[in-house]
Automatic annotation (TrEMBL):
Record-given protein name: F-box protein interaction domain protein
PANTHER family membership: OS02G0783600 PROTEIN, PROTEIN, PUTATIVE-RELATED
Domain of life: Eukaryota
Organism: Medicago truncatula (Barrel medic)
Domain F-box: from-to ranges: 5-51
Amino acid sequence: MDTPPLQALFVPNELVSEILFLLSVKNIVRLKCVSKSWNALISDPLFVQKHHNLSLQNPHLMLSWKTITPAVKFVVPFPVHLLLKNPSITVSSNKSHDFEHNCRIVGSCNGLLCLLFNSETETSKPKNWLRFWNPATRTSSKNLGSFRYRTPRRYDNSYGLSCYKFSFGYDASTLTYKVVAFRVRRNNDSWESRVKIFNLGDNCWRNIQSFPIFPLNWLQNRRRLASNCRLNDGVHLSGTINWLAMYKPTTHVVQFVIVSLDLSTESYKKLLPPPGFNEMPCFQPLLRVLMDSLCLSHNPKKTELVLWQMKEYGVQESWTQLFKISYKNLQMQNIDAGFACLYVNSDTVIFANKYCNQPYIYNLKDKTVKRIKVGLNLDWFDQAMVYVESLVSVP
């Protein structure tokens, strides 16, 4: 008796999608070659968006090689859940991504990194250019937004202020990635800012309105308030770039404000910090985006790390103090060091100490701390950032 032929198993696209959503970006990209229908499904913007939304639950920390300059040569994306599971795990360099030139990471948005490259010769002015890169798919754009700028020939009090500082964001109203660059320079007895914006759709730089209040990081060479420039270079949230700024400074007390640039209208507004924040001494407050909210961290008494969260963007009354971590629980006392919160979720905090470049995992419930094993001379403070893998196409 002949065996009846096997019938091809039909799997509906809805079920295929649910299975693919469980896979990593690397594996999904490989499956594009299974068939034309799979390739079309994986390339569909709705599939890409849903996969990205699910990937938000499994963030990575993007770590770079520690150097004495802001330039990086390679980066290592490392899953947060592996660190939480085993703080002693060794971060492997096998998963590193190398660059052919030194560059700076401007920021991360929708799974893309914005990279800033620089070249300088003795006979020409310094040249900058941008490149957008998806580490998960290992695809990158061509060189974009090339421009030159003048740097001072000798060190003085304004050295470095003529160099631009960059921030990266996404304008959902036009589905466009934008890069904001600014500098602050002395003009006779006053200071003035110049702000440029790069719109990927136009592939050019345009001048926009100057800052109403200067961001904090332009003071890096005049005061020691922003000892780490990149952390206060501006953070992206919901179509806005936000900078911590200093308002009417005095000798002992600094008043702070947050300057927010709407990438859609290219206009500014001011957000007030948490209540009582203005009375704190001048000691390295940091503005970050954590849990999809604007957050401010500082240590007002140099004895504890405090984190505030603006639960509803733009609403002053929504500022909430999430936690205070005493240095005593970390076996530290009166340490003049910066602390950067890298990740917060429920009762778990990952943060790093500046001077010893030491990352910690802290449990807010039982007040226990674990030191993360540090290797490969990776930078856990200045350059570390949250990164989420995605299938988003490189522009």
